[in-house]
């Protein structure tokens, strides 16, 4: 078996207000996307840990920003999901502001991983996020999640659709059930962190 791409990972801290966002210490990769898209699951898969980041079948599981220290030299940053209807407007605004503060403050953010559910149409909230990231000149790539739910043919069409829609961004298919796709994503992240 090939050596794991990331060897060691531990939970570091949860941050719930902008003032507490960590000062830059280690190179960071952050995971961003609508609620329930699979951010926490992807983090676990890429790090080879089952329950490091908490996952749930109901949206809105990850509240606050969770930092994971990886190989004692990188931070993996699990951001709250956006586009989740079943929370109050004030709470939604709070998470939105927290995400925005994080993205504006994090000077060692090397790459952002924007997750989009491969089964869904391109959503307004994702298109807006892409616009904003481009405007802020944040480096990011797009991960299409849950591709195990699609046939090979559907997957080809979906990748093409997203490539046409976001021609400037690297697009990777992903499934927590596919070792090869997990390794591809881990490698892409590792390269960006170094
Ligand atoms: N079939 C399949 N299910 C997945 C995959 N990735 C995640 N899921 C499921 O999708 C649900 C949501 O996953 P999470 O990782 O908790 O999603 P999240 O983006 O962190 O959600 P929030 O924290 O609420 O923003 C869980 O039931 C996961 O098991 C995948 O690749 N394939
Ligand atoms: Mg989560």
Automatic annotation (TrEMBL):
Keywords for this protein: Cell cycle, Cell division, GTP-binding, Magnesium, Metal-binding, Nucleotide-binding, Septation
Cofactor: Mg(2+)
Signal sequence range: none
Highest taxon listed in the record's lineage: Bacteria
Pfam families: MMR_HSR1
GO MF annotation list: GTP binding; metal ion binding
The EngB-type G domain, residue ranges: 25-194
One of the protein's GO biological processes: division septum assembly
GO cellular component: cytosol
InterPro entries: G_ENGB_dom, GTP-bd, GTP-bd_ribosome_bio_YsxC, P-loop_NTPase
Function: Necessary for normal cell division and for the maintenance of normal septation.
Family of the protein in this entry: Belongs to the TRAFAC class TrmE-Era-EngA-EngB-Septin-like GTPase superfamily. EngB GTPase family.
PANTHER family: ENGB-TYPE G DOMAIN-CONTAINING PROTEIN (PTHR11649:SF13), MSS1/TRME-RELATED GTP-BINDING PROTEIN (PTHR11649)
Protein known as: Probable GTP-binding protein EngB
Organism: Caldithrix abyssi DSM 13497
